[in-house]
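Form 7-S
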Amino acid sequence: MYIKGLKEAIEIKNGSIFIKDKKGLMNMMDSLIYNAVFESDNEKQTALFIFIKEIAKACGAIPASIQGLYEEIGRNYLGFTVPAINIRGITYDIARVLFRKAQEMNVGAFIFEIARSEIGYTKQRPLEFATVVLAAAVKEGFEEPVFIQGDHFQLVRKNYLNDPDAETNYLKGLIAEAVEAEFYNIDIDSSTLVDLEKAAVKEQQRPNFENTALLAEHVRLLQPDGVEISIGGEIGEIGKKNSTPEEARAYLDGFRQTFKGTKGLSKLSVQTGTSHGGVVLPDGSVAKVKVDFDTLRVLSDLVREEYGLSGCVQHGASTLPEETFNMFPETGTSEVHLATGFQNMIYESRHLPVEFREEVYHFIRQEYAKERKEDQTDEQFIYSTRKKGFGPLKKKWWELPADVKEPIMKELETRFELLFKKLKVTDTVNIARRNVKRVVFKKEIKADLLNL
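Output:
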Protein backbone atom coordinates (compact mmCIF):
# COMPACT_ATOMS: atom_id res chain seq x y z
CA MET A 1 0.00 0.00 0.00
CA TYR A 2 1.44 3.35 -1.00
CA ILE A 3 -0.10 6.55 0.32
CA LYS A 4 1.91 9.69 -0.37
CA GLY A 5 3.17 11.26 2.85
CA LEU A 6 2.26 8.35 5.14
CA LYS A 7 5.84 7.63 6.21
CA GLU A 8 6.26 11.29 7.16
CA ALA A 9 3.00 11.32 9.16
CA ILE A 10 3.57 8.31 11.41
CA GLU A 11 6.36 6.25 12.91
CA ILE A 12 6.10 2.61 13.96
CA LYS A 13 8.41 1.89 16.88
CA ASN A 14 8.40 -1.39 18.82
CA GLY A 15 5.00 -2.26 17.39
CA SER A 16 3.42 1.07 18.43
CA ILE A 17 2.33 3.99 16.28
CA PHE A 18 3.53 7.51 16.97
CA ILE A 19 1.86 10.43 15.20
CA LYS A 20 4.18 12.98 13.63
CA ASP A 21 1.73 14.83 11.38
CA LYS A 22 -1.89 14.56 12.48
CA LYS A 23 -3.19 17.03 9.94
CA GLY A 24 -1.44 15.12 7.19
CA LEU A 25 -3.04 11.89 8.43
CA MET A 26 -6.47 13.49 8.36
CA ASN A 27 -5.91 14.47 4.74
CA MET A 28 -4.88 10.97 3.67
CA MET A 29 -7.54 9.04 5.63
CA ASP A 30 -9.97 8.94 2.68
CA SER A 31 -7.44 6.95 0.66
CA LEU A 32 -6.30 4.82 3.59
CA ILE A 33 -9.77 3.56 4.52
CA TYR A 34 -10.86 3.09 0.88
CA ASN A 35 -7.81 0.91 0.19
CA ALA A 36 -8.50 -1.14 3.32
CA VAL A 37 -12.21 -1.73 2.67
CA PHE A 38 -11.66 -2.80 -0.92
CA GLU A 39 -8.45 -4.79 -0.43
CA SER A 40 -9.03 -8.25 -1.96
CA ASP A 41 -6.45 -10.17 0.07
CA ASN A 42 -8.10 -11.08 3.41
CA GLU A 43 -4.87 -11.27 5.41
CA LYS A 44 -3.63 -7.95 4.11
CA GLN A 45 -7.06 -6.38 4.63
CA THR A 46 -7.10 -7.44 8.29
CA ALA A 47 -3.62 -5.96 8.73
CA LEU A 48 -4.78 -2.70 7.16
CA PHE A 49 -7.85 -2.50 9.39
CA ILE A 50 -5.77 -3.04 12.53
CA PHE A 51 -3.21 -0.50 11.32
CA ILE A 52 -5.89 2.16 10.81
CA LYS A 53 -7.50 1.41 14.18
CA GLU A 54 -4.13 1.81 15.89
CA ILE A 55 -3.67 5.14 14.11
CA ALA A 56 -7.09 6.23 15.41
CA LYS A 57 -6.24 5.28 18.98
CA ALA A 58 -2.92 7.12 18.72
CA CYS A 59 -4.90 10.16 17.53
CA GLY A 60 -7.20 10.04 20.58
CA ALA A 61 -10.27 8.23 19.21
CA ILE A 62 -10.51 5.38 21.73
CA PRO A 63 -13.07 2.53 21.50
CA ALA A 64 -14.86 2.55 24.86
CA SER A 65 -17.61 1.02 26.97
CA ILE A 66 -20.53 3.22 28.00
CA GLN A 67 -20.92 1.15 31.19
CA GLY A 68 -19.64 3.84 33.57
CA LEU A 69 -21.98 6.46 32.18
CA TYR A 70 -24.92 4.05 32.39
CA GLU A 71 -24.08 3.23 35.99
CA GLU A 72 -24.23 6.95 36.78
CA ILE A 73 -27.58 7.22 34.98
CA GLY A 74 -28.79 4.23 37.01
CA ARG A 75 -27.98 6.11 40.21
CA ASN A 76 -29.31 9.45 39.01
CA TYR A 77 -31.07 9.90 35.68
CA LEU A 78 -29.26 12.70 33.88
CA GLY A 79 -32.13 13.86 31.68
CA PHE A 80 -30.96 12.70 28.24
CA THR A 81 -31.48 9.69 25.98
CA VAL A 82 -28.44 8.25 24.20
CA PRO A 83 -28.94 7.78 20.43
CA ALA A 84 -27.61 4.49 19.05
CA ILE A 85 -27.28 4.81 15.29
CA ASN A 86 -27.14 1.85 12.90
CA ILE A 87 -25.27 2.65 9.68
CA ARG A 88 -26.05 0.27 6.82
CA GLY A 89 -24.24 1.96 3.95
CA ILE A 90 -21.94 4.87 3.04
CA THR A 91 -20.67 4.27 6.57
CA TYR A 92 -17.52 6.40 6.38
CA ASP A 93 -19.36 9.47 5.10
CA ILE A 94 -22.21 9.16 7.61
CA ALA A 95 -19.84 8.58 10.53
CA ARG A 96 -17.93 11.70 9.51
CA VAL A 97 -21.14 13.73 9.61
CA LEU A 98 -21.97 12.37 13.07
CA PHE A 99 -18.55 13.17 14.47
CA ARG A 100 -18.59 16.63 12.91
CA LYS A 101 -22.04 17.43 14.31
CA ALA A 102 -21.16 15.94 17.71
CA GLN A 103 -18.14 18.22 18.02
CA GLU A 104 -20.15 21.22 16.94
CA MET A 105 -22.85 20.49 19.56
CA ASN A 106 -20.50 19.17 22.28
CA VAL A 107 -22.12 15.70 22.21
CA GLY A 108 -20.23 12.94 24.00
CA ALA A 109 -23.05 10.41 24.51
CA PHE A 110 -23.86 8.69 21.21
CA ILE A 111 -23.34 5.18 19.89
CA PHE A 112 -22.47 3.60 16.55
CA GLU A 113 -24.01 0.15 16.18
CA ILE A 114 -24.64 -2.72 13.82
CA ALA A 115 -26.95 -5.69 14.33
CA ARG A 116 -26.23 -9.36 13.69
CA SER A 117 -28.52 -9.33 10.66
CA GLU A 118 -27.00 -6.09 9.33
CA ILE A 119 -23.48 -7.49 9.56
CA GLY A 120 -24.61 -10.08 7.02
CA TYR A 121 -26.59 -8.12 4.47
CA THR A 122 -24.52 -4.92 4.59
CA LYS A 123 -21.30 -6.95 4.30
CA GLN A 124 -19.65 -5.15 7.22
CA ARG A 125 -17.91 -7.56 9.58
CA PRO A 126 -17.20 -6.10 13.05
CA LEU A 127 -13.56 -5.29 12.32
CA GLU A 128 -14.47 -3.39 9.16
CA PHE A 129 -17.33 -1.51 10.81
CA ALA A 130 -15.21 -0.46 13.81
CA THR A 131 -12.31 0.58 11.59
CA VAL A 132 -14.43 2.66 9.22
CA VAL A 133 -16.04 4.47 12.17
CA LEU A 134 -12.65 5.17 13.77
CA ALA A 135 -11.20 6.30 10.44
CA ALA A 136 -14.03 8.84 10.25
CA ALA A 137 -13.14 10.00 13.76
CA VAL A 138 -9.55 10.66 12.67
CA LYS A 139 -10.72 12.49 9.56
CA GLU A 140 -12.87 14.82 11.67
CA GLY A 141 -10.35 15.25 14.51
CA PHE A 142 -12.62 13.60 17.11
CA GLU A 143 -10.67 12.84 20.31
CA GLU A 144 -13.31 11.50 22.70
CA PRO A 145 -14.40 7.95 23.64
CA VAL A 146 -16.07 6.18 20.70
CA PHE A 147 -18.91 3.81 21.60
CA ILE A 148 -19.29 0.93 19.13
CA GLN A 149 -22.08 -1.54 19.81
CA GLY A 150 -23.26 -4.95 18.69
CA ASP A 151 -27.02 -4.45 18.33
CA HIS A 152 -29.49 -7.36 18.47
CA PHE A 153 -26.86 -10.06 18.89
CA GLN A 154 -29.76 -12.40 18.61
CA LEU A 155 -30.53 -16.07 18.99
CA VAL A 156 -32.67 -16.79 15.93
CA ARG A 157 -35.65 -18.79 17.18
CA LYS A 158 -35.93 -21.14 14.19
CA ASN A 159 -32.21 -21.94 14.29
CA TYR A 160 -32.22 -22.38 18.05
CA LEU A 161 -35.18 -24.76 18.09
CA ASN A 162 -33.54 -26.82 15.34
CA ASP A 163 -30.08 -26.99 17.00
CA PRO A 164 -29.61 -25.01 20.25
CA ASP A 165 -25.89 -25.72 20.55
CA ALA A 166 -25.07 -24.70 16.99
CA GLU A 167 -27.03 -21.45 17.24
CA THR A 168 -25.56 -20.58 20.64
CA ASN A 169 -22.02 -21.34 19.47
CA TYR A 170 -22.54 -19.19 16.37
CA LEU A 171 -23.57 -16.24 18.52
CA LYS A 172 -20.67 -16.85 20.91
CA GLY A 173 -18.36 -16.72 17.91
CA LEU A 174 -19.88 -13.46 16.71
CA ILE A 175 -19.51 -11.95 20.19
CA ALA A 176 -15.84 -13.01 20.26
CA GLU A 177 -15.28 -11.46 16.82
CA ALA A 178 -16.95 -8.22 17.92
CA VAL A 179 -15.01 -7.93 21.18
CA GLU A 180 -11.75 -8.58 19.32
CA ALA A 181 -12.75 -5.72 16.98
CA GLU A 182 -13.21 -3.53 20.11
CA PHE A 183 -16.99 -3.47 20.31
CA TYR A 184 -17.20 -2.77 24.04
CA ASN A 185 -21.00 -2.57 24.05
CA ILE A 186 -23.07 -5.70 23.29
CA ASP A 187 -26.87 -6.08 23.25
CA ILE A 188 -27.89 -9.70 23.77
CA ASP A 189 -31.30 -10.54 22.36
CA SER A 190 -32.77 -13.90 23.32
CA SER A 191 -36.27 -12.45 23.62
CA THR A 192 -37.06 -14.52 20.52
CA LEU A 193 -37.13 -17.58 22.80
CA VAL A 194 -39.83 -16.30 25.18
CA ASP A 195 -42.45 -19.06 25.49
CA LEU A 196 -45.89 -17.46 25.80
CA GLU A 197 -47.55 -20.89 25.99
CA LYS A 198 -46.34 -21.20 29.58
CA ALA A 199 -48.79 -20.01 32.23
CA ALA A 200 -46.35 -18.32 34.63
CA VAL A 201 -44.55 -15.20 33.41
CA LYS A 202 -41.24 -16.35 34.89
CA GLU A 203 -41.47 -19.61 32.94
CA GLN A 204 -42.28 -17.65 29.79
CA GLN A 205 -39.12 -15.62 30.33
CA ARG A 206 -36.93 -18.53 31.51
CA PRO A 207 -35.34 -19.41 28.14
CA ASN A 208 -34.73 -15.68 27.67
CA PHE A 209 -32.98 -14.91 30.96
CA GLU A 210 -31.08 -18.20 31.10
CA ASN A 211 -29.60 -17.70 27.64
CA THR A 212 -28.90 -14.02 28.30
CA ALA A 213 -27.02 -15.02 31.48
CA LEU A 214 -25.03 -17.66 29.59
CA LEU A 215 -24.04 -15.23 26.85
CA ALA A 216 -23.31 -12.42 29.32
CA GLU A 217 -20.88 -14.72 31.13
CA HIS A 218 -19.24 -15.37 27.76
CA VAL A 219 -18.87 -11.62 27.21
CA ARG A 220 -17.29 -11.16 30.63
CA LEU A 221 -14.75 -13.91 29.92
CA LEU A 222 -13.73 -12.19 26.69
CA GLN A 223 -13.53 -8.56 27.84
CA PRO A 224 -9.98 -7.21 28.19
CA ASP A 225 -8.57 -6.21 31.57
CA GLY A 226 -9.76 -2.79 32.62
CA VAL A 227 -12.86 -2.77 30.41
CA GLU A 228 -16.36 -3.57 31.68
CA ILE A 229 -18.38 -4.18 28.54
CA SER A 230 -21.87 -2.67 28.63
CA ILE A 231 -24.36 -5.53 28.15
CA GLY A 232 -28.01 -5.00 27.27
CA GLY A 233 -30.87 -7.46 27.63
CA GLU A 234 -34.33 -7.60 26.04
CA ILE A 235 -37.73 -8.81 27.22
CA GLY A 236 -40.12 -8.00 24.37
CA GLU A 237 -39.41 -9.06 20.81
CA ILE A 238 -39.75 -5.87 18.78
CA GLY A 239 -42.99 -5.78 16.84
CA LYS A 240 -44.85 -8.02 19.28
CA LYS A 241 -47.03 -7.19 22.32
CA ASN A 242 -46.06 -4.42 24.72
CA SER A 243 -43.88 -5.28 27.71
CA THR A 244 -45.15 -5.28 31.30
CA PRO A 245 -43.64 -4.69 34.76
CA GLU A 246 -44.29 -8.33 35.61
CA GLU A 247 -42.23 -9.45 32.62
CA ALA A 248 -39.40 -7.04 33.49
CA ARG A 249 -39.21 -8.31 37.07
CA ALA A 250 -39.45 -11.98 36.05
CA TYR A 251 -36.63 -11.53 33.53
CA LEU A 252 -34.32 -9.44 35.72
CA ASP A 253 -34.87 -11.56 38.84
CA GLY A 254 -34.27 -14.70 36.80
CA PHE A 255 -31.13 -13.20 35.28
CA ARG A 256 -29.76 -12.26 38.70
CA GLN A 257 -30.36 -15.76 40.02
CA THR A 258 -28.75 -17.39 36.97
CA PHE A 259 -25.87 -15.09 36.05
CA LYS A 260 -22.48 -16.05 37.50
CA GLY A 261 -20.57 -12.80 37.54
CA THR A 262 -20.23 -9.44 39.25
CA LYS A 263 -21.50 -6.92 36.68
CA GLY A 264 -24.79 -7.78 35.04
CA LEU A 265 -26.88 -5.77 32.59
CA SER A 266 -26.71 -2.01 32.05
CA LYS A 267 -30.09 -1.52 30.29
CA LEU A 268 -33.23 -3.34 29.18
CA SER A 269 -34.87 -3.24 25.73
CA VAL A 270 -38.66 -3.37 25.85
CA GLN A 271 -41.56 -3.34 23.39
CA THR A 272 -43.80 -0.25 23.31
CA GLY A 273 -45.65 -0.51 20.01
CA THR A 274 -42.95 0.02 17.37
CA SER A 275 -41.51 -2.34 14.79
CA HIS A 276 -38.20 -2.34 12.95
CA GLY A 277 -38.48 -0.24 9.81
CA GLY A 278 -42.09 0.68 10.58
CA VAL A 279 -45.26 -0.82 9.11
CA VAL A 280 -45.27 -0.41 5.33
CA LEU A 281 -48.53 0.44 3.56
CA PRO A 282 -49.33 -0.77 -0.01
CA ASP A 283 -48.16 2.52 -1.52
CA GLY A 284 -44.78 2.16 0.18
CA SER A 285 -45.40 4.81 2.83
CA VAL A 286 -44.99 4.08 6.54
CA ALA A 287 -48.00 3.87 8.83
CA LYS A 288 -48.11 6.20 11.81
CA VAL A 289 -47.25 4.42 15.03
CA LYS A 290 -48.24 5.41 18.54
CA VAL A 291 -45.51 4.69 21.06
CA ASP A 292 -46.70 3.70 24.51
CA PHE A 293 -44.67 6.27 26.44
CA ASP A 294 -46.41 5.31 29.68
CA THR A 295 -44.87 1.85 29.36
CA LEU A 296 -41.45 3.39 28.76
CA ARG A 297 -41.79 5.65 31.80
CA VAL A 298 -43.04 2.92 34.14
CA LEU A 299 -40.46 0.35 33.06
CA SER A 300 -37.53 2.79 32.98
CA ASP A 301 -38.36 3.91 36.53
CA LEU A 302 -38.74 0.30 37.64
CA VAL A 303 -35.44 -1.03 36.25
CA ARG A 304 -33.56 2.03 37.51
CA GLU A 305 -34.99 2.10 41.03
CA GLU A 306 -35.21 -1.65 41.68
CA TYR A 307 -32.25 -3.00 39.69
CA GLY A 308 -29.83 -0.09 39.18
CA LEU A 309 -30.00 -0.23 35.38
CA SER A 310 -29.74 2.95 33.30
CA GLY A 311 -33.31 2.55 32.10
CA CYS A 312 -35.13 1.11 29.11
CA VAL A 313 -34.16 1.05 25.45
CA GLN A 314 -36.53 1.98 22.61
CA HIS A 315 -36.01 0.13 19.31
CA GLY A 316 -37.49 0.88 15.91
CA ALA A 317 -37.73 4.62 16.50
CA SER A 318 -36.13 6.27 13.47
CA THR A 319 -39.36 6.42 11.44
CA LEU A 320 -41.33 8.11 14.23
CA PRO A 321 -42.54 11.72 13.76
CA GLU A 322 -40.09 14.44 14.83
CA GLU A 323 -42.39 15.70 17.57
CA THR A 324 -42.18 12.41 19.49
CA PHE A 325 -38.44 12.39 20.15
CA ASN A 326 -38.51 14.88 23.02
CA MET A 327 -40.66 12.31 24.88
CA PHE A 328 -37.77 9.88 25.31
CA PRO A 329 -35.82 12.02 27.81
CA GLU A 330 -39.09 13.01 29.48
CA THR A 331 -39.94 9.35 30.14
CA GLY A 332 -36.46 8.46 31.39
CA THR A 333 -35.56 6.31 28.37
CA SER A 334 -31.82 5.65 28.52
CA GLU A 335 -31.18 4.72 24.88
CA VAL A 336 -33.00 4.85 21.54
CA HIS A 337 -32.07 2.85 18.41
CA LEU A 338 -32.24 4.57 15.03
CA ALA A 339 -31.68 2.96 11.64
CA THR A 340 -34.29 2.80 8.88
CA GLY A 341 -35.16 6.49 8.89
CA PHE A 342 -31.64 7.41 7.76
CA GLN A 343 -31.73 4.73 5.07
CA ASN A 344 -35.03 6.17 3.85
CA MET A 345 -33.55 9.66 3.67
CA ILE A 346 -30.72 8.39 1.48
CA TYR A 347 -32.90 6.44 -0.94
CA GLU A 348 -35.56 9.16 -1.16
CA SER A 349 -33.21 12.13 -1.43
CA ARG A 350 -33.74 14.23 -4.55
CA HIS A 351 -29.94 14.34 -4.79
CA LEU A 352 -29.60 10.59 -5.40
CA PRO A 353 -29.58 10.12 -9.18
CA VAL A 354 -32.74 8.42 -10.42
CA GLU A 355 -30.74 6.05 -12.63
CA PHE A 356 -28.58 4.92 -9.69
CA ARG A 357 -31.62 4.36 -7.45
CA GLU A 358 -33.24 2.31 -10.21
CA GLU A 359 -30.03 0.33 -10.67
CA VAL A 360 -30.16 -0.63 -6.99
CA TYR A 361 -33.87 -1.46 -7.14
CA HIS A 362 -33.34 -3.59 -10.26
CA PHE A 363 -30.62 -5.50 -8.41
CA ILE A 364 -32.97 -6.05 -5.46
CA ARG A 365 -35.82 -7.28 -7.67
CA GLN A 366 -33.50 -9.80 -9.29
CA GLU A 367 -31.41 -10.99 -6.35
CA TYR A 368 -34.13 -11.12 -3.69
CA ALA A 369 -37.18 -12.09 -5.74
CA LYS A 370 -37.72 -15.20 -3.57
CA GLU A 371 -38.20 -12.99 -0.50
CA ARG A 372 -41.21 -11.27 -1.99
CA LYS A 373 -44.49 -12.19 -0.29
CA GLU A 374 -47.54 -12.95 -2.41
CA ASP A 375 -49.60 -10.07 -1.04
CA GLN A 376 -46.85 -7.43 -1.28
CA THR A 377 -47.06 -4.56 -3.71
CA ASP A 378 -43.85 -3.65 -5.52
CA GLU A 379 -43.55 -0.57 -3.27
CA GLN A 380 -43.83 -2.68 -0.12
CA PHE A 381 -41.30 -5.20 -1.39
CA ILE A 382 -38.76 -2.51 -2.32
CA TYR A 383 -39.22 -0.66 0.97
CA SER A 384 -38.73 -3.78 3.08
CA THR A 385 -35.81 -5.12 1.02
CA ARG A 386 -33.78 -2.10 -0.07
CA LYS A 387 -31.67 -2.28 3.08
CA LYS A 388 -29.95 -5.15 1.24
CA GLY A 389 -28.90 -2.86 -1.60
CA PHE A 390 -25.96 -1.39 0.32
CA GLY A 391 -23.71 -4.40 0.91
CA PRO A 392 -23.41 -6.05 -2.52
CA LEU A 393 -23.14 -2.62 -4.19
CA LYS A 394 -20.89 -1.12 -1.51
CA LYS A 395 -18.22 0.08 -3.92
CA LYS A 396 -20.74 1.85 -6.16
CA TRP A 397 -22.26 3.64 -3.16
CA TRP A 398 -18.79 4.56 -1.87
CA GLU A 399 -17.75 5.94 -5.26
CA LEU A 400 -20.78 8.17 -5.80
CA PRO A 401 -19.40 11.61 -6.75
CA ALA A 402 -19.03 14.34 -4.15
CA ASP A 403 -21.76 16.47 -5.75
CA VAL A 404 -24.18 13.60 -5.03
CA LYS A 405 -23.00 12.56 -1.57
CA GLU A 406 -22.40 15.97 -0.04
CA PRO A 407 -25.98 17.28 -0.29
CA ILE A 408 -27.31 13.93 0.99
CA MET A 409 -24.94 14.16 3.95
CA LYS A 410 -26.15 17.71 4.54
CA GLU A 411 -29.72 16.41 4.82
CA LEU A 412 -28.58 13.75 7.31
CA GLU A 413 -26.63 16.35 9.25
CA THR A 414 -29.81 18.40 9.72
CA ARG A 415 -31.60 15.29 11.01
CA PHE A 416 -28.77 14.44 13.41
CA GLU A 417 -28.84 17.98 14.78
CA LEU A 418 -32.57 17.72 15.44
CA LEU A 419 -32.18 14.34 17.17
CA PHE A 420 -29.29 15.51 19.33
CA LYS A 421 -31.40 18.45 20.48
CA LYS A 422 -34.60 16.46 21.04
CA LEU A 423 -32.78 13.71 22.93
CA LYS A 424 -30.96 16.38 24.98
CA VAL A 425 -27.45 14.98 24.45
CA THR A 426 -25.92 18.38 23.66
CA ASP A 427 -23.15 19.35 26.11
CA THR A 428 -22.60 15.77 27.29
CA VAL A 429 -18.86 15.60 26.52
CA ASN A 430 -17.77 16.37 30.09
CA ILE A 431 -20.31 13.93 31.56
CA ALA A 432 -18.93 11.20 29.29
CA ARG A 433 -15.34 12.10 30.17
CA ARG A 434 -16.07 11.89 33.91
CA ASN A 435 -17.79 8.52 33.75
CA VAL A 436 -16.13 6.62 30.91
CA LYS A 437 -12.78 4.85 31.18
CA ARG A 438 -10.32 5.31 28.34
CA VAL A 439 -8.28 2.14 28.10
CA VAL A 440 -6.04 1.62 25.08
CA PHE A 441 -5.29 -1.94 24.00
CA LYS A 442 -2.59 -2.15 21.39
CA LYS A 443 -3.04 -4.66 18.60
CA GLU A 444 -0.12 -6.18 16.73
CA ILE A 445 0.79 -4.26 13.58
CA LYS A 446 1.99 -6.53 10.80
CA ALA A 447 4.23 -4.07 8.98
CA ASP A 448 5.49 -6.74 6.57
CA LEU A 449 1.95 -7.05 5.11
CA LEU A 450 1.44 -3.30 4.77
CA ASN A 451 4.33 -2.53 2.38
CA LEU A 452 4.77 0.88 3.96
